[in-house]
Structure formats: C-alpha cells, structure tokens
Amino acid sequence: MTNIEYTxxxxxxxxxxxxxxxxxxxxxxxxxxxxxxxxxxxxKKVGAVTIAEKAPIEAxxxxxxxxxxxLLLVVDDEDTVVGLITSTDTHxxxxxxxxQKHGGIYGDILVQDIMTAQDKLEVIHMDDINxxxxxxxxxxxxxxxxxxxxxxxxxxxxxxxxxxxxxxASQIARQLDIEIPxxxxxxxxxxxxxxxxxx
Length: 199
Description:
By secondary structure, this protein is of the alpha/beta class. It has helices at residues 57-67, 87-91, 94-102, 111-114, 126-131, 134-144, 169-175, 185-198, and strands at residues 40-42, 50-52, 71-75, 81-86, 116-117, 123-125, 148-154, 161-168.
C-alpha cells in the first residue's frame, strides 16, 4: 500500500443569510391507467408524520413545514389515530370560525379544535388499491371533494385496522406532471380531468 498525502480542502466562513437545502421528494411519473398503489405514500416505507391532539395548531404548521407535508395524523397518548389535520384546516376558515364561536386568538387553538375527527374520516381499503388504477383514485377524491385519502389495512393477528398509506391530489398531479398552485384542489382536478379527456 502506497503512502498518499491528502491535502486539506480550502474552507471559508459561512456567508450571512445562508439557508439550507430541503430534501427533494422524487416521484415517478405515472399515467392514469397505472396501478393505484403508484400514487400512495406507503407508511411501511415512509414514516407517518403525526401530531398530538392537544398540540397548538402553530405546532402543526411548523411540523408540516419542517417535514414538507400538508397532512398530519392526529394521535392521542397511546398513538391511536383520533383524526387528521391539513394545511387547509390550519390556514382556512376553521380557525376563524373557532375564534368566533369560542373567543381567544389563533395561538390558543389546539389541533383537536379544528381537526377532522376519526369518526368523520372516510378510508379506502388496501385490497381495493391493489386492484384499481390511478384514474379510480382520482374519481374517488373528486367525488368526495377531498385533497387527501387514507388507505387502511388490517393487522393479521389482531384484525385491528391500521392506516397503511396516504394519497394526496397534489402528489398525483406532480406524478402526472401537472403544474398546480398550492392548495388549489379544484384546479388540480380540472387539470387531471383535462388529461382524462385527452387520453
């Protein structure tokens, strides 16, 4: 083995105002007749992003921004899913309505005050995802008027329902290579429908 002399790399001082790179999420481009599972974020492969039900909604906003997501699963002390909260919930009409009804300020609002509770959450079963196409998922989201869908499975031993995946209209649009403004669900579906019409 030869002796190699390694020279130090030149360094400098960090410039004022420097930021940092965010992780880029790379999606495979898809077509509407591809398997539906191609647009599901599989929680067996990607960790679920959660928030406590008693956390302030400002903490929910910070968590969504930090993790680069628009939806958080809301959990109780036992990590049971009790609801979900989206960026539309925290930045839309719900906080204003809560303040009008209960008083206080934005900073007083807790996740549980504006989340969509577990008993109001519609879910899709993994068995259906396994046999359907992306176009079916788009039709389902459009009919429900929602930008997200939860996919559930059952644990073999306990037969307890578990959230297996999350489907997002904005992710579908990215994977179909459609440019959409943030939080514009109607625009998203208009663009996807245009693709369906031209297919």
